[in-house]
DNA sequence: TTGACATATCTCTATATGGGAATATGAACC
DNA sequence: GGTTCATATTCCCATATAGAGATATGTCAA
């Protein structure tokens, strides 16, 4: 068999850097597709396709505004990720401090680049 | 072009449910490949391949013990994920309560199944 | 050295994708 | 209706897998 489908779950959906970029765009609030296209300098069809994937997983929702579609982030859907990470945090208290250092380091140097 | 490589970053690496299962196995501590194979009932070559991916990304490290290889989790490498999520938590305080509810709900029903 | 055990790698196939380009759908306005 | 703008969908291709199976590599024991 092949790779599992991106639409299967949140973990796969956020695996793509572009999709993360789109989500990042939406942090500041609802946006139309064109705004995302402008912000990321990606072809419109690609943005639409990625939005579809994100939508299938529930990470974004869409509402019509005239002939535009306004997309909005659904941060609650990131919960599975958060929950998964929490398992590790719980089980690994011993190394958490080191993890925190790493986080701070990342936040200091890069900014939007969370990869 | 095709999909981006799984080895490119942590986000892709944990996109695969089997790889998450392997990481979950390692939460309890260092384990040999055979132990993981037994625990997950996966073919040994698959486990080795997934371990390779996880290793490339730094999520696990390996040390030799006789003819066995003991793999160990490197939770610090989950930091990019944590940092990425933190962005959303920061920007979305308004909806955080709802997110917390979702998390608690997930933790209540499923347990290991964080997908 | 020979043999047994533990793990890694190689080969092969099917499949799901990501990106590009063209086009279809849909809404507002004349 | 016809036109224009905004977004979604379809077609096509190159590619990176995941999984299966066979085999190579490496380590210890006798």
What do you see in this structure?
2 copies of one chain form a homodimer. The first copy, chain A, is α+β, with helices and mostly antiparallel strands and 115 residues long. Helix content of chain A is 57%, strand content 12%. The first copy, chain A, has 6 helices and 3 strands. A 3-stranded antiparallel beta sheet of chain A has the order 1-3-2. In chain A, a hairpin with a 2-residue loop joins β2 and β3. The radius of gyration of chain A is 16 Å and the shape is globular. In chain A, 29% of the residues are buried. The mean pLDDT of chain A is 86. At the A-B interface, α1, α2, α5 and α6 of A face α1, α2, α5 and α6 of B. Chain B binds a DNA duplex (30 and 30 nucleotides) through residues 1-6, 16, 18, 32-34, 42-52, 64, 66-69.
Helices, strands, pairings?
The structure is a homodimer of 115-residue chains.
Chain A: H1 10-13, H2 17-27, E1 31-32, H3 33-40, H4 44-57, E2 60-65, E3 68-73, H5 79-91, H6 93-108
Antiparallel strand pairs in A: 1-3, 2-3
Chain B binds a DNA duplex (30 and 30 nucleotides) through helix 4.
């Amino acid at each position: 068999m092949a790779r599992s489908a991106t639409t299967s779950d949140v973990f796969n959906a956020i695996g793509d850097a572009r999709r993360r970029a789109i989500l990042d765009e939406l942090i500041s609030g609802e946006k139309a597709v064109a705004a995302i296209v402008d912000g990321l300098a990606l072809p419109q069809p690609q943005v639409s396709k990625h939005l579809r994937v994100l939508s299938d997983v529930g990470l974004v929702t869409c509402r019509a505004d005239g002939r535009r579609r306004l997309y909005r982030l659904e941060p609650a859907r990131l919960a599975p990720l958060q929950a998964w990470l929490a398992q590790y945090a719980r089980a690994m208290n011993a190394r958490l401090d080191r993890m925190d250092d790493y986080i701070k380091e990342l936040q200091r140097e890069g900014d939007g680049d969370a990869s």
